[in-house]
Design a protein that fits this description.
The chain is mainly α. The chain is built from 13 helices and no strands.
Length: 221
């Protein structure tokens, strides 16, 4: 069947064949036995030109697979294909879809260790409080895995420090349990600046800057 040929060509990154089949009227949304469309396969394999061609032909960028419920964006993130991920995000791919264990694309990037994907996902509006099957937010998962850069980025994005897993463990407990000392330092520093004492110190520093600026001699014109 031509639909099978389209999926095979997308999987292989054969842009010419994909374009020929689409021009011949092959249904862009044709899916295999698992519910994967040509776009799922192209995204998973990082075939950016094919991803662009399929999107241009009207492929549903948010379609979930029959098994696991993964969207093309999950596939790109899961396999570490940053450029394919970016193309999908620029096309308007949503991040609310969850894979089988409640993982959003942000969870997937953290789980697989693709830290370069965190910032683009956050810029594109990732839900920083979404929970997986263990009620772990991205911050909890990052703390557990000791991903310091991700922890800092999530905190800067406003992730809640008081979130807990289904076992009642917060980010501090997860970092301690897994002996993530540097991660724990980042969390403790964030907690301080979010406390009354931290806010008072920030205010005092601002006032110090203002006093210093006002005390500087002004240059005559």
């Amino acid at each position: 069947m031509d639909e099978d040929l389209l999926i095979d060509a997308a999987t292989a990154g054969d842009l010419d064949t994909v374009q020929t089949l689409l021009a011949g009227g092959v249904e862009v949304e044709a899916a295999d036995f698992a519910g994967w469309t040509a776009l799922h396969h192209a995204a998973q394999n990082g075939h950016v030109p094919v991803v662009r061609a399929l999107i241009g032909a009207g492929a549903d960028i948010d379609r979930a697979t029959g098994a696991g419920g993964s969207a093309p964006l999950h596939m790109a993130v899961w396999k570490g294909h940053a450029e394919a991920m970016q193309v999908l995000l620029e096309a308007g791919a949503k991040q609310y879809h969850e894979m089988g264990k409640g993982w959003t694309p942000l969870h997937v990037a953290l789980k697989e260790g693709f830290m370069e994907m965190i910032a683009p996902l956050l810029r594109a509006g990732a839900d920083i409080e979404a929970m997986d099957h263990k009620e772990r937010t991205p911050l909890l998962l990052a703390a557990e895995k000791g991903k310091e850069t991700a922890v800092a980025a999530l905190l800067n994005a406003g992730a809640k420090l008081d979130a807990t897993t289904y076992r009642g463990e917060d980010a501090f407990e997860l970092a301690r349990k897994m002996e993530r000392d540097r991660t724990l330092q980042i969390l403790e520093k964030a907690a301080f600046w979010d406390s009354d004492a931290g806010r008072a110190e920030r205010l005092e520093r601002v006032n110090d800057v203002k006093r210093f600026a006002s005390a500087r001699p002004r240059l005559k014109k």
